[in-house]
Write a sequence for this structure.
């Protein structure tokens, strides 16, 4: 779709993230937040005070069916994404879903099919793809600065917030799975996952996920709601250089290490010799613009100009596919699950 006019946005859900969405979409040129829906009266009263020009409603169907709304942002619990997203697409609206895209691969695929048939933008809010840190990592990968990529290692742990409807992988891993899929062009072939529940409801609060590839690359995720410290760290290793992304270090989020090793056979060909290289460490400059605003601009740009968004529906689908397979693996004691 190409349109030179203003895109009227409706936002479903005005919780913590919904407030950020309203603020950022209000700052996008050629975009107007026209309506917000939430079931809680106190949340609607708040938006009426802060944004008196925005219409509010408790009736989500009123928002979705409004002829004045061009696109809908869904910022509700994951189990509602499919039903609300389908209703919005069938009403001819462009749709942006919070992560994860849906609660199953089948639901994601159905929404993609509806969006394709109706020529509507379907996008997922994988906000980290729009951060300066991840954009710098993507640049390093595309410029082959790291060499052949060997591994991806992610740790995302903290104390709480424990969810009641999804396990720790569904809660924390979508961020880093979306980054993995963004950085690595090849798709994975299988996953293996283990986890345990200490909260007596069958929902895993600690989990480990391994994602396997055919080309020798491997990815690993460590997620926990039960850690005494908050760690948000990611490593991407190549045979030339390695990158560390530390999201809790505001001054040096990205560090590039000119570090590696080389394998050589000795003279009698029976033993392997390793030579190690430890070179410079440098901290590249990264863009500090707000990632959520960049995401909002990408969504509006895709609607107006017909461009492919960075965090497109395929990105959302593959994140859900890996999460769904990981859940199956956990319930089968770490069994390898093909994708």
């Amino acid at each position: 779709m190409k349109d030179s006019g203003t895109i009227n946005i409706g936002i479903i859900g005005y919780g913590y993230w919904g407030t950020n969405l309203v603020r950022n979409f209000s700052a996008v040129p050629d975009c107007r937040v026209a309506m917000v829906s939430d079931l809680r009266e106190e949340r609607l009263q708040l938006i009426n005070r802060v944004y008196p020009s925005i219409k509010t409603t408790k009736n989500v169907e009123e928002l979705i069916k409004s002829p004045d709304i061009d696109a809908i942002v869904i910022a509700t619990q994951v189990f509602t994404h499919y039903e609300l997203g389908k209703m919005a697409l069938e009403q001819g609206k462009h749709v942006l879903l919070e992560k994860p895209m849906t609660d199953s691969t089948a639901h994601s695929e159905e929404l993609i099919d509806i969006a394709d048939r109706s020529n509507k933008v379907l996008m997922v809010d994988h906000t980290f793809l729009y951060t300066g840190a991840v954009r710098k990592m993507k640049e390093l990968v595309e410029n082959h600065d790291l060499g052949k990529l060997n591994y991806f290692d992610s740790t995302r742990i903290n104390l709480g917030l424990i969810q009641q409807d999804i396990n720790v992988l569904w809660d924390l891993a979508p961020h880093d799975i979306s980054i993995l899929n963004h950085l690595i062009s090849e798709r994975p072939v299988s996953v293996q996952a283990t986890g345990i529940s200490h909260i007596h409801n069958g929902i895993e609060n600690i989990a480990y996920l391994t994602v396997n590839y055919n080309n020798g690359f491997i990815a690993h995720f460590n997620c926990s709601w039960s850690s005494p410290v908050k760690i948000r760290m990611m490593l991407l290793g190549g045979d030339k250089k390695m990158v560390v992304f530390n999201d809790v270090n505001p001054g040096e989020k990205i560090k590039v290490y000119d570090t590696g090793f080389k394998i050589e056979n000795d003279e009698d060909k029976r033993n392997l010799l390793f030579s190690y290289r430890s070179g410079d460490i440098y901290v590249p400059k990264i863009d500090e613009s707000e990632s959520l605003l960049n995401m909002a601009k990408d969504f509006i740009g895709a609607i107006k100009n017909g461009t492919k968004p960075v965090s497109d529906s395929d990105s959302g689908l593959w994140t859900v596919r890996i999460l769904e397979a990981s859940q199956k693996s956990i319930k089968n004691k770490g069994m390898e699950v093909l994708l």
Observations:
- Residues 313-331 form the longest helix (19 residues).
- The first strand starts at residue 7 and ends at 12.
